[in-house]
Specification:
6-stranded antiparallel sheet; single chain; about 850 residues; alpha+beta
Length: about 850
């Protein structure tokens, strides 16, 4: 039987009242409307598998028990609407067809037999271009449909090489001679049997056919061989729908593989990108697919080898290698846009009606690919096709070509005039809606291919770019001055090759001036010692805390943009990354103060004043060193100088609150560690009354200290510095051997005092008195007065007062001289040291000892007293 649409009825007759209708007239009427129905499906809707018809193998006890086929809908190129059905009712009338139901989910075919198409001799099933023998075919049947000719499906061998077909067996039933009085109820029965068939790969290839001419055996004319003519659509190129996505570069791999203590160079980062590019052969697969599509739709091929050579040359630089990665990603994004449009593009206006007129290919029985060449898709009519989609695909392929040809092989370096530009763009939209990256050469031809819609309405010059010289409009040249609410991303370009500090300052200047919502960080491959800049971090530590670091040619709104340099010796920005969140730069205001900026190593603890009150205080010191910060039992942060590592003596120690740097610093000074001894004493001889003492000072750096000497044990200090050899000389006059004074030396160093006392230093000759002659009169007139000193009792003072007064007293003579000195405790300020009342200021928490000396200036008699004081937090 010929295909229904091979000869189409274009007219029919209306019947008149009382007219005798002959069968050709009535059949003409039926044929016309059936042909119109079929043409509507094919021309206005489409052909192929609409949905369903998925084969599945069902096993029981490791044996194939059935081939399950799901319900579906398909349309042949002859306009037949195919669905699975079951017999619902067999008519009792001899001349009425049985009724079917399609209300089923699937059918299980449990039996098979060899199928012979001897009635129709369907040409696609015949070898030799439809003129030879039939290909191998097996018919499937359900358990209910199978008869003795069928055998169990478990006997079907070679399942991996089997393909499933739907075949509408369509023919007219043979006419038998009419017997009886009336033949009006008779008619030629039109048989429509839907067969589920199985064939081999060789059979499928035969069905697809060859594009050749064969001789028609009836007419002798050369006619096209039966062939499935839908296949050349770009959609059916092998793996065409597989995204050619670029492999991501995972920076954290360096830390994971080599450890956080490893040292890295910019070449290590570069190798990550170079390896990815080399692994995918610089996008070779994408080029092959683009060229395959271009060939089918009549566009020129794109030069892959020239592009590859350009990228290899570009990768020879120390900076900018990320742009080579970016351009491949751009090409991948362009290809992604293309394949999303393919299913509704390039549909043939009038499908070949002889392509698959009575069969539908359902694909391989055991599928191995998502897109099976042996399974018909649904090929919608051109009336359903979006005509713009075909134009979009053609423009996108042209854009792909422009991207390849216009990638700039430029030197990534700062020649002194380099500028950074931030361009608003999009985060998730297709590349067409994003700003044009700066590594492309902008031209009119290039911009015409960037965005289909803008090109269609002649506004292609309005594409945002680093340098769109084709437009003079302010909103294109300075887009950040206008509304950017719809922009979710910022392209940041021009900074690579700059000194990192210059780039950082320029980025922050633009960001602050334009009020943009992102932060900026600097990463160094060199370990940062005593780093006080919270906008700068060591690469290894930062990546370990933030493994989501990724290069994106900019930063999204609310993110952190990160520029990377190698070291202070090589400060050029060679790469950039971003995080989708603000990181490491606290916005809350913090404050921190200490009562003093200098303290002695052996002094007591002093409190911090912290804002916010619950802020976390840390010293900014090298790992492994102690910065002296500790917390009291009540949670108060204090600075304990005795904890500070000796390596930090003499250096300003800085602090952070909640990770943010503060202006608070303190310097811990090491107290002097000198030794003083009496080297020699020259005692009086003859008429001399001089006792000459020579002192020897030793210790590291002894010449740098100040020395205050109390030789007479009367609280009167004199300043004497040793010579280069450490010698100090002092002469006593009329020294009484019975009252040898204790010598006190205060060694001062940067506000710290070391108190040294020298006792029992006199070992002079003993004088024997043989006779004493007293003058006449009162022998006791020359008695020495007894002097008393009272420094007061132990007292406690709160730190909040910041000062206190010690009131002393003396007795034993009419005229008295007072002298106060500090003998123990942290360094404080002493006022009125030569008055009975001593004023002490600039307190520090700790325990103190003060000595009061009271002297009779006439006789030299004196007395001393000590008082201890405690300063507490409060």
């Amino acid at each position: 039987m010929n295909n229904q649409l091979s000869n189409i009825s274009t007219q029919y007759r209306k019947f008149s009242k009382g007219q005798y209708v002959r069968h050709p007239q009535f059949n003409e009427f039926l044929d016309f409307f059936e042909d119109q129905d079929r043409l509507s499906r094919v021309m206005l809707q489409g052909v192929g598998i609409v949905c369903g018809f998925k084969p599945d193998l069902i096993y029981a006890g490791k044996l194939l028990s059935s081939i399950r086929l799901s319900q579906g809908i398909a349309v042949t190129t002859d306009g037949d609407l195919l669905t699975l059905s079951n017999t619902n009712e067999i008519s009792e009338d001899l001349y009425v067809s049985e009724l079917k139901t399609i209300d089923i989910q699937n059918k299980d075919f449990t039996h098979f037999k060899v199928y012979e198409d001897f009635k129709v001799k369907y040409k696609p099933f015949r070898k030799n271009n439809g003129l030879g023998n039939q290909i191998e075919l097996w018919e499937l049947a359900t358990a209910k449909e199978a008869n003795s000719d069928f055998q169990p499906i478990s006997n079907l061998a070679g399942l991996e090489d089997k393909y499933v077909l739907l075949y509408l067996e369509s023919y007219e039933k043979e006419i038998k001679p009419c017997r009886g009085v009336d033949c009006d109820n008779h008619g030629v029965q039109q048989i429509r049997n839907l067969k589920v068939l199985v064939t081999t790969a060789e059979g499928i290839i035969n069905i697809l056919g060859e594009n050749v001419l064969v001789k028609d055996p009836d007419s002798g004319a050369l006619v096209p061989a039966p062939m499935d003519r839908i296949q050349p659509h770009p959609l059916f190129i092998e793996d065409i729908l597989k995204y050619g996505k670029q492999e991501r570069v995972i920076i954290e791999k360096l830390i994971a593989e080599q450890g956080v203590n490893a040292s890295f160079l910019s070449s290590d980062i570069k190798s990550l990108y170079a390896d990815v590019l080399e692994n995918n052969q610089y996008g070779k697969v994408i080029f092959e697919k683009i060229n395959a599509i271009a060939q089918l739709i009549g566009l020129p091929a794109v030069n892959y080898q020239g592009f590859k050579n350009t990228l290899e040359s570009f990768l020879g630089q120390n900076a900018g290698f990320q742009y080579a990665y970016d351009v491949i990603k751009d090409l991948s994004d362009t290809y992604s846009e293309i394949i999303k449009l393919l299913p509704k593009a390039f549909t043939v206006s009038l499908p070949d009606l002889n392509s698959f007129p009575k069969h539908i290919m359902l694909g391989k029985l055991v599928p191995v690919k998502q897109l099976d060449f042996s399974r018909h898709r649904f090929y919608n009519s051109s009336v359903l096709d979006d005509e713009k989609n075909s134009g979009r695909v053609q423009l996108l392929i042209s854009r792909f070509t422009q991207q390849v040809q216009n990638f700039r092989n430029f030197t990534v370096a700062d020649n002194g005039s380099a500028q950074i530009k931030i361009t608003p763009s999009q985060k998730l939209n297709p590349l067409s809606n994003k700003a044009v990256p700066f590594y492309y050469t902008i031209s009119e031809e290039f911009l015409k291919t960037w965005n289909y819609d803008k090109t269609g309405n002649r506004s292609y010059r309005d594409n945002l770019a680093f340098n769109n010289w084709l437009s003079t409009d302010v909103h294109i040249q300075e887009p950040l001055l206008f509304n950017i609410d719809k922009n979710s991303f910022y392209n940041i370009e021009g900074h690579q090759g700059m000194h990192y500090e210059k780039a950082f300052n320029m980025l922050n200047q633009i960001r602050d001036e334009k009020q943009l919502g992102f932060d900026v960080m600097m990463l160094s491959l060199e370990e940062l010692i005593d780093n006080k800049d919270m906008f700068k971090a060591y690469f290894n530590e930062y990546v370990e805390k933030h493994p989501g670091l990724e290069h994106r040619r900019g930063v999204e709104k609310g993110g952190t943009f990160i520029i990377m340099y190698e070291s202070s010796e090589n400060p050029v920005v060679f790469a950039d990354f971003s995080l989708p969140y603000i990181c490491c730069t606290p916005k809350i205001d913090v404050k921190l103060t200490l009562p003093t900026t200098v303290i002695c190593a052996k002094a007591g603890s002093i409190p911090f004043t912290v804002y916010p009150m619950n802020g976390d205080v840390k010293a900014v010191v090298t790992s492994g060193l102690d910065g002296g910060v500790e917390q009291s039992a009540g949670g108060q942060y204090v600075f304990n100088p005795s904890r500070v590592s000796p390596q930090l003596y003499g250096k300003a120690i800085a602090f952070t609150v909640n990770g943010k740097p503060t202006s608070c610093t303190i310097k811990v000074n090491k107290e002097s560690d000198v030794h003083i001894e009496v080297a020699s004493v020259i005692y009086p001889s003859g008429d001399s009354n001089e006792t000459k003492v020579k002192f020897k000072i030793s210790g590291t750096g002894f010449t740098t200290y100040d020395y205050n000497w109390d030789f007479l044990q009367n609280g009167n200090f004199v300043n004497l510095k040793p010579d280069g050899e450490g010698n100090v000389n002092y002469t006593y006059y009329d020294l009484n051997p019975a009252e040898i004074p204790v010598i006190t030396v205060n060694v001062n160093s940067n506000g710290c005092t070391q108190i040294i006392t020298i006792r029992n230093w006199y070992n002079g000759p003993v004088t024997t008195i043989d006779d004493i002659s007293f003058p006449k009169g009162n022998c006791c007139e020359g008695v020495m007065p007894t002097i008393r000193a009272e420094a007061g009792d132990f007292q406690r003072f709160p730190l909040s007062k910041n000062s206190f007064v010690l009131t002393g007293s003396g007795s034993g003579a009419d005229t008295l001289y007072y002298s106060w000195i500090q003998t123990q405790g942290p360094a404080v300020t002493l006022m009125d040291v030569n008055k009975p009342s001593l004023i002490v200021k600039n307190l520090i928490i700790g325990t103190y000892e003060f000595k009061l000396t009271v002297i009779d200036p006439h006789s030299g008699a004196f007395a001393t007293d000590l008082v201890q004081i405690s300063v507490f937090e409060g």
